[in-house]
Prior knowledge:
It comes from Phreatobacter stygius. InterPro entries: Isoprenoid_synthase_dom_sf, Squ/phyt_synthse. The chain has 15 helices and no strands. By secondary structure, the protein is mostly helical. It folds into two domains: about 1-100, Farnesyl Diphosphate Synthase, CATH 1.10.600.10; about 115-285, Farnesyl Diphosphate Synthase (Orthogonal Bundle), CATH 1.10.600. Helix 1 crosses helix 3. Residues about 290-293 have low confidence and may be disordered.
Amino acid sequence: MAADGAANAFQACEDLVRTADKDRWLASLFVPAPLRADLMALYAFNIEVAGVRERVSAPLPGEVRLQWWRDVFDGEARGDVSGHPVAAALAQVIARRHLPAKPLIDLIDARVFDLYDDAMPSVADLEGYCGETSSALMQLAALVLADGRDPGTADIAGHAGVAYALTGLIRAFPLHAARGQIFVPADILARNGAQRDDILSGRSSDGISRALEDLRELARRHVAAAEALQGQVAVEVAAAFLPMALCRLYLDRMDQFIKAPFANQVEAPQWRRQWLLWRAARRARFGPRLADL
């Protein structure tokens, strides 16, 4: 690909991430420019795959789109991959940073679940889904920042990715319900007497609130587990895990949302998110200050 075409592809990735995944874009501001561009390609790929359901009218066309992405990594994609800016940019990143194809394909496979309205059977199934999507993305980001070397971050990526995904799924609970999806595991719903029909109809209930609270506590446990591992993360790859710094902010702001999830949202001003990311980046680079302890 010509230099201008490559630059345009990476710029398209950044524009997409800035619009569709603002928190990861904000976190990427603490990454050196060349590496930052590579992260943008990785995050843009995630947006493309995660957004397939929103762009199709039925599961089958969604399956076809996901298969095209699998074929990109197998070298069998129909059409010119260079004509798709995200695919073109990511192909360069994979070659430059020696990224393995398997976690990318596993991420695509996990997203097949998004195309259907099947129940999430259990907490273990949900954690597995979050691990193959969000945790895998963090681990791949760490590989990019380590220039393809093993960053030794599998454990923190596991917990941080699950925490970040759970936080996002709770926030998106009303949106998913409106389109027929329920990511809250069936075992949590049953334990709390939460009815599927109430969720899909947008009717709040005590059972739904208790189920969401259980999910919030699960997210908090993964946040705590990830935070306990942060001291083992090398400075050069720490930015891969910066988005997790926003989990506690969102989780702490969920009280009213959990009481009435169809009438409230969980938001935080951008200045607050940027400050938390800056503080997390500073601590990763210099260690905690007395005032942070």
